[in-house]
Amino acid sequence: MSLDQTPRRRRRRKQENHNKVTGCQAPVRQLVNPFRPIEILSEDQLESVHQASLTILRDTGIDFFLPEACDRLKKAGAIVEPGSTRVRFDPHMVESFIGLAPEVVEVHARNPERSFKLGERYISFGNVSSPPNVSDTINGRRSGNHIDFRNFLRLSQYYNIITFIGGYGVEPTDWHPSIRHLKATQDFIKFTDKAYHAYSLGRQRNLDVIEMTRIARGLDQAQMQSQTSLMTVINSNSPLQLDKVMLEGIIEMSSRNQLVILTPFTLAGAMAPITLAGALALQNAEALAGLIFTQVVKPGAPFVYGGFTSNVDMHSGSPAFGTPEYMKTAVAGGQLARRYKLPYRSSNVCAANAVDSQSAYESVFSLWGAVMGGANLVKHAAGWMEGGLCASFEKFVIDIDNLQMLASFFKPIRVDEDELAIKTIAEVGPGGHFFATEHTKARYRDAFYAPIISDWRNFETWQEAGSPTAVDKARDVFQQVLAGYEPPPLDQAIAEELDEFVERRIREGGVKTDF
Amino acid sequence: MSLDQTPRRRRRRKQENHNKVTGCQAPVRQLVNPFRPIEILSEDQLESVHQASLTILRDTGIDFFLPEACDRLKKAGAIVEPGSTRVRFDPHMVESFIGLAPEVVEVHARNPERSFKLGERYISFGNVSSPPNVSDTINGRRSGNHIDFRNFLRLSQYYNIITFIGGYGVEPTDWHPSIRHLKATQDFIKFTDKAYHAYSLGRQRNLDVIEMTRIARGLDQAQMQSQTSLMTVINSNSPLQLDKVMLEGIIEMSSRNQLVILTPFTLAGAMAPITLAGALALQNAEALAGLIFTQVVKPGAPFVYGGFTSNVDMHSGSPAFGTPEYMKTAVAGGQLARRYKLPYRSSNVCAANAVDSQSAYESVFSLWGAVMGGANLVKHAAGWMEGGLCASFEKFVIDIDNLQMLASFFKPIRVDEDELAIKTIAEVGPGGHFFATEHTKARYRDAFYAPIISDWRNFETWQEAGSPTAVDKARDVFQQVLAGYEPPPLDQAIAEELDEFVERRIREGGVKTDF
């Protein structure tokens, strides 16, 4: 075997050939957004929103639909009438809970190279999560199922720009809800080596997923409780309600130092006031209530401030995404999160029904709000369509290209003698060309971001090639990535322990449902 | 006639019905970008780029292909060998010309309501300019002609978000170049009441357009020379060349206080170094050389710093737009312009061949670079495709929607008691709905931006409606706007004087060409 034929080299060759068809791939690394977040609220306005939230929490209060939660909050100083679900908070109590949660959180993946940090200028991207439908231009639009669910996992594992598995790429509705969390989490662990999400849909489901994560990471119980390895999105049921399963999720997750991403779904004009200031005040009140409860459960439990405020079409009531209002609240949400020194979550969302210009501009506007607003965690970063009702394979790949472009935008411009190229400019001189210079030759391979989707050929060449649009190219790419997918290594003993756990829990009926 | 039937009311009704099909329309106003520009270069790096430009101007110099220009520069202190076109500048000389051009420029339109300011945080948008081809999904792609040229003028006049006419929406190639500028400018004045662009394609063409503009605005010669009413883009022929017609353009425009937008076309890897720092140093050297010449011609002449640096596909040499590199140089270009206290020009560009996701994400990324980079003047803001080789009617309308969204993004969030809606939140309470509240009813008509293109219907309703994509909607809209177009009023005497001028100049043969 010649030196050139080592397995590593062969693997690299294979990888290079694969990349020719599927486009470039970002390296595995912790992304840092170098840009200072922009601001849309003045200091005074920010304070007014904060004060309004305190007033809402004091005078109106929030329904906590779990007696255990009401009891714990009452003990911690909240005002709860006997037998009531309504919890009110004195402003001093609220203020006393700000600053307990960590400013930076490290989320551990089973592959340590895939662990990532949240907070400061760190930014991480997760795949689309939870749509009931899935589509591609080969088989059309269909209900979520475990085959497509697995394919989204494969794509999410393949692309390094996807930092974490934010949930089910599409709901595997062919798996019964009593066992869905077991089978889906088993797949998370087998198909990917990234950190992932646990749906808070009842205490036992959280406990099952926490246990599976402990097994996957090869930790004992104490280690599991000291390392954040799992995240859950807690949606308040706006306005001003936290449901039983969400509160159970906070209890099981926060008590074990697992990550809670509290995201009020405050649609201005529907579940929130039609004014952006009012919608933000409501979002903020709900986020602070959630923050307090996590810190009551365990002081110092990791917490992410989630912003998801958007507007609705006032004629139809349909939610809208990637709108100017969405961008504004994404930026304002970041200011609120930073006021509380909390990591900030935003999203890459659109309302489009087709993978067309609308899906692209709404998505990039969403990313604009998220990135310039200083988001640390961007959910639904690849594949989201139809306001979350559908996941698209083609949109997934187009979004990946856009995220990789942002990662390239984040790389600083190097400025030194070599890069300023004064000598080369002098050599080339007026009217010359830089193409053939040594300066260019030494750099041309990786000077610029090489896109997956963008077609830069001239019109005639492009037309001769069959006039492929972005969707056509994305269709080819996602199929090729799926064909070339290889699962990440998993320790045999861990795999067996995991399988035994899942088999046992399925034999036990999983989590009983009434359907 | 009842009160309800006044002509004004009837006109408003007609307008409202028209708007139902063509979507909302931004009001006529001077847009202000409220966001502090982001920065990609540190202060030190910015200074290094500046110093590199000074070195290039001192050691390599620039070719000025017009003896008159060389003579004037030599008199002003530049180093020019006898009989040579090469002009070198001492750094002290360069520094002494910085700060002479105005920080804010008012550009006067023939309709004073359409005049606009450049500089500080003002931002203005112009239509796509100069593509040789035009396309729509009805008649396909074709060569530029005066019918399509006029239709772009109609669209550009109709949409208030288009501040100025940046050039020919598409080249009217069916008008001979000897008379094209006369007929096209005549149409600028008759089809629109906005300020517009004069191509610098030889001294006489500039003089003709300046005279037509004087007539259109009803000014005498002295007034015309004291009010900036016309703009010209001066492209340096990178690297380091300024062609004869461009220099003649500067002489005729700057001497009369008309606006020069100096834009080096520095494609990294082709006409500029492959490194972004090198491409920026070259761009900056060329911009400073142009600045100096305008100020030699007339100290205080209005000048805009243009940034157009992008990268090329290193395999094919094709230019790329809306790339991460493009965004980075757009942001850095803004920093350079502000260092010299000059208004900044950027663009809304893409390389896509189809009005698909690529055309949208590349465009929004371009706008991201422009807006967050602090651009005051955004050229090609609506309709640009194929790296500038084609103008698309559908893309024009989609871009208009995106620009209007940005204008809405720029509107501050109001924060006061009414807007914070604490009382309404208390009234609605946990689990309620805001749709039917008085607070919502009083605001629902214009609380949110109403898009022209974005389709927010759910999938089923959208599918029943025939699954229209963004392009389908844009096709309907541009046709309806064209059908409803009404030319702006023009004083009869001015129209006659203009027609006489154009007829006379055409009789004279316009500007003689050798073809």
Account of the 3D structure:
Two copies of one chain form a homodimer. By secondary structure, chain A is of the alpha/beta class. The first copy, chain A, has one domain: TIM Barrel, CATH 3.20.20.480. The first copy, chain A, is 45% helix and 13% strand. The first copy, chain A, has 19 helices and 21 strands. The first copy, chain A, has helices at residues 7-22, 43-60, 67-75, 91-96, 146-158, 177-191, 203-217, 221-226, 244-254, 276-297, 324-339, 357-372, 393-410, 417-420, 422-428, 438-441, 459-464, 470-484, 492-507, and strands at 31-32, 62-64, 79-80, 86-88, 105-107, 116-118, 122-127, 133-136, 140-143, 164-165, 195-197, 230-234, 241-242, 259-262, 267-268, 303-306, 310-311, 344-347, 377-382, 384-385, 390-392. In chain A, the strands form five sheets. Chain A has a nine-stranded mixed beta sheet. In chain A, β5 (105-107) and β6 form a beta hairpin. The longest helix of chain A is centred in the middle third of the chain and has 22 residues, at 276-297. Chain A is globular. The relative contact order of chain A is 0.14. At the A-B interface, α2, α10, α11, α12 and α13 of A face α2, α10, α11, α12 and α13 of B.
